[in-house]
Amino acid sequence: MIDVTCAIIRDEMERILIVQKGEKSGHPLKWEFPGGKCRQGEAFEDCILREIREELVMDIVICGRLEPVEYDYGTIKIRLIPFVCDTLIEEPELKEHKAYRWIVPADLPGVDFLEADVLVAEQYLALATAKSREQENEGCRTIPDEEGAPLNEQELIDFINRLMSMKEADWLAGSALIHPALPEKLLEYSYNNENKLAFRASWVLTKVCDKYPEIIQPHLHKIVRTLPYMKNESVIRSFMRILSFCDMQAFSEGEHGMLADYCLSGLNSPDTAIAIKAYAMEILYRLTVLYPQLGNEVAASIRSVMEEGSPGITSKGKTVLRKITGITSGS
Q1: R_g of the chain, CA atoms, integer Å
Q2: Which of 3, 48, 292, 295 might form a disulfide with 38, Cβ 3.0–4.6 angstroms?
Q3: 115: pLDDT confidence band, cut at 50, 70 and 90?
């Protein structure tokens, strides 16, 4: 039996990504959840992250895992390990598949899936339906919703670890207004050695930033200072997203230098994830507004990335280059 991972990838609107196999594949024109075979000794989590990068040039955040599904295709028997994931990338770049679609969960039963993927789709739909009913009956509140009520740390950690939808993450982020300690706790958990807790906490922190940027302001300096030492790529992506929306004048000159060095190094490294490079470009543009002399170096790094980049990173690069040219030509 061969172990294969697959990803149920959700976007900001909670649509699900499905991909179609080519005409010359073993299952021509069938649809599936993206993923692939595990290498010897490879952890399932590492496998799905690698496969999605290779197949779709996407960065994903693992939010949960469903029960494995076994299926015998006659010529091969597989154990399919499904992960529920979210992405911050707008569109995939197809490397192996013929087409892709974003669909709402209710449309899953009508898709011409591979047999094993049918079982995964049924499992996810049942889980999503049950979760939706639970939220309707009880709401998603499992932490106090009264202003000034103390946070129970273990309940908060348990809630973060159980997050399965954008709706829950948005609700938790929204509660930052009545729980001033929440952003600090989310930041604290973002540095946790438990990767699952860390990336989910940092993910919710980005949503707090979207809703109430002023609440995040006191914590930005710590994010900048600790960024070079972060190892968790999902947390790095969240931190970079937060910083890409910040007014750079909120930071000191020393912090500007740290950010510039970090972003330029990331752009010039082939190992940096696509989403992180995109955020780095935006941060560097904002720094160039303050320091026009950075323009030539930043532009050169962006052009280098664009030469071998995906369509998404090329499009982002062109946009940032136009803005930087406007700054440097007027200086």
Answers
A1: 21
A2: 3
A3: very high
